[in-house]
Amino acid sequence: xxGKRTDVISxxxxxxxxxxxxxxxxxxxxxxxxxxxxxTNHRILSxxxxxxxxxxxxxxxxxxxxxxxxxxKHNYVIHAEANAILNYRGSLKDLDHATVYVTLFPCHECAKxxxxxxxxxxxxxxxxxxxxxxNRISKNILERCGVAYRQVRLGER
Length: 157
Known about the structure:
Structural class: alpha/beta
Strand order of the largest sheet: 2-1-3-4-5
Number of strands: 5
Number of helices: 4
Order of helices and strands: HEEHEHEHE
Helix content: 25-40%
């Protein structure tokens, strides 16, 4: 009798692939970001992606970066990490020590939100903005608050 299959993907890869799937829902033409929050028992608590608030029709939204603050997408889009927290319908206590898997390293605003929600670890795929002021602030926030972060690479399938 053959034994169980051993060539399964890791939990890190599984949850990151869920985050990647979530990012495919983003309407942003330049940057699609997904997030998946998993608890310490390897259960998915929530997912999110970067997009407009639910009251704004994303088909009519001006998806561009501009010097006009009323038309600049950055002033309207909710980041994937924040959406994942907001999408969760259980008790916020469940997020305590959970891990967020995110396709892009969090900005400093999301870092603050993740810390405040009780997230214990950030696992990211890409650190596109490494070394920028915002990125350094984000890492400083996570470090000062005792939130671990690490990059994960996906295997080929």
